[in-house]
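Box 3.1 A note on notation
Throughout this textbook, protein chains are presented in two layers. The first layer is the amino acid sequence; the second is a token string describing backbone geometry. Keep the layers aligned when reading.
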Amino acid sequence: MAKGAARSEATAAPARPSAADRVATAATAILLVSTVELAVGFAFIPIVVRQLGPAQYGDYASLMAAAGIAQVLTNLGLFSAIRKGMTEERASARRRVASGGLLLCGLLGLGASVAGIALALLPSLPLELDRLRFPIALVALNLLVWNVFQGARSVLFGLHRESSVEPLRVVVAVVSAVGGIVALHVGLGVSGLLIAVCGANGIAAIISVRSAAAQVRLRLGDGWVGLRAGRQWVTFGVYTTLGIVFAQLLYYADLLIVVVILGSSAAGVYRAALLLSEMLWIVPGALQVSLLHNVSGLWARDRRREIGAITDRAMTIALLLTGLLTVGLVVLAGPFVRLYFGPPFAQAVLPMQILVVGAAAFALARILNPLVEGTGLIRQNVLASGLLAALNVGGNLLVIPRYGLLGAAIVSATTYVLKLVQLVVLARRTAVPWGATIRWGRILIYTSSLVVAAVGGSLLAGVLGGGSWLTLAIGGGLLLAVAGSSALGLGLVGVDELRSWGSVILGRPRSSQR
């Protein structure tokens, strides 16, 4: 009788999802939001560049690049530390981790905000910064609200509540875009755009903190206890921060050097090239975020084969979608830039094509980064990243004065490729069996078919005498058709896997396959 009841109870209890299921669910939710966010930005940017022109767009892009580096220094790697702590700690200790981490995020954000506003109020500033005093103050204020939002987001990620917090990124994108368009319409320029960004992050911070508080029943007293026990976070965070700072230098050092040496107009054109190349990171970025805390949890339980399996699957998905975007952007760069940015940005085409190749390598590096850091090789990763960041800064300082935007693109693309090489070497030292289940031959066939489709579509459009619109329609349509059919035909993606992604997108519960 007891056995029958136990058997019935076991049958009724839902199976616990595997780490692969959790990664897939989280990555799909993040990717869905990232796609919507990208679509909003995709519609917003042409309005901005046409309203501001290359020079003011260069100012805006440079301020946002500087803000990206400042944000890393502000959070001290706490976001990753909070996610890791929430995943590894017992349920009884999660409230302390969450409240202490949130409190520390707020204090660091407040300190950074005060320091930035003080900089904007200095009586003497270089001429380029003097005319940007108010925008600098707005960027500083945004550091506070952004830090709080990301801290609460990390708490919810550590609880595997990605789908409940990620839609806030859409809120930020929509409010920033709509508010920015209104600001541009009334003539507020760059300052108006930054006011919209700051307001959007403020709304997201309030909502995310309330959601995190409801999940773990936050209390301020727990926060002070968490701060006293936070030395381990800071140790982990120091290495994480250094790693992210070096990564930010890889992303933005070239742009900041361009604006100093070549001026705002050149920076605006170069930012257009960077913007398109960064589209390649949308899928690997979603996978990277979802992998880190899952890999850490599996490593703590010595489940190495499972880590290898989810890494291989993530790498395969990244290879498929990154290959599609890489081929499309390289082959169709000319007509796309002419239509999207307009004639003033025609010089962005060749630098963008070069950057895309490097960005593809960096996209794959993003998949290996959680494997390396989650298994304890964070110090080696940071040191290697520091060398690459120094190479990037030094190389750009050397070549930009002579070769301009083309030189900047070559140096940055080279360091992106070297970053992938570095992470492959470190990943081989983790004792995790990864790479064996990736079907490299089939992926090569898949990529070759994409090149043939994109080039063939462009040639066909030329024979038909079409302009940019026809080239994009034929080339892009053929590329998508070949990508989907070849991925399914070669067995790189299964129908069941597509259905599971669809269930996440539609918000339906997924049944466990275990």
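The radius of gyration is 23 Å. The longest helix spans residues 19-75.
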